Amino acid sequence: MTATDAECMGLALQQARQALLAGEVPIGACLVHGERRIVARNTVLSGSDPTGHAEIVAIRRASTELNATRLDGARLYVTVEPCLMCAAATHYAGIAEVHYGASLADLQELTGDELSAEPLPVGPRLRGGLQRDASLALLRAWSERRALR
User: Fold this and answer.
1) What is the CA radius of gyration of the chain?
2) Cα 7 from chain centroid (whole Å)
3) Is 35 assigned a catalytic role?
4) pLDDT for the residue numbered 116
5) Catalytic hit among 7, 24, 35, 55
6) What are the b/e assignments for 58-86, b being 16+ CB within 10 Å?
7) pLDDT at residue 120 above 60?
8) Residue in 142, 24, 31 with CA at minimum distance from that of residue 95
9) What is the pLDDT of residue 52?
10) Who has greater pLDDT, 109 or 67?
C-alpha cells in the first residue's frame, strides 16, 4: 500500500463516517483522476435513490466536473467492494483500478441481503482488503444501529 493509497482510502473512510453520522449506509469513496480527488458518500437513504451508491455519486461528480463520460486511468477507492451495478459503472467510465476495504461477503454477513458479485469478465482490476478492518468497523456500527430499530 502506497502513501497515496492510504491517503485516498482515508478520504473514503472519512466520507463513510460522515454517512454513518447522517444515518446513511456508511460507505464512502474517493475517485482520483490526474491531480483531482473527488469524494462522495452513499446517498441511497437520504436521496431516496437506490443508485446513490458512493461509487456512482463519485463517478457522476467526476464526470460533471471534468465534462467527460470517460474517466480513463482513474483510480477509485471505496470502503466496500463494489456491487454489480457499481462494478459495471466503473467499467463503463474507464476506471483503471478499484481499491476497496470490506468485501461484499463481509457486508452480506452483516446484513444478509447483499448480492454477491463475481468480477466482470472485463473492467478494472480489483484489489481488496485495503484498510478492511476500519471499513468493516464502520459497517458493524451501522449494522448495530439497524438492529436497535
Assistant:
1) 14
2) 15
3) no
4) 53
5) 55
6) bbbebbeeeeeeebeebbbbbbbbbbeeb
7) no
8) 31
9) 97
10) 67
Cα distances from 145 to residues 15, 24, 107, in angstroms, run 18, 11, 15
Mean pLDDT of all residues in the chain?
A: 90
Cα three-residue angle 137-129-110, rounded to 5 degrees: 40
Q: Which three cell numbers stand for residue 127?
A: 484489489
Residues paired with 36 in a beta bridge: 33
Hey, which residues does 28 pair with through a beta bridge? 41
Query: CA-CA distances (angstroms) from residue 147 to 54, 80, 141?
Result: 23, 20, 10
pLDDT at 123: 66
> Residue 71 is placed in which grid cell?
474517466
Helix intervals (H) in 54-131: 54-66, 84-93, 104-111
CB 65 within 8 A of CB 99: no
**In this structure, are residues 77 and 12 in contact, taking their beta carbons and an 8 Å threshold?**
yes
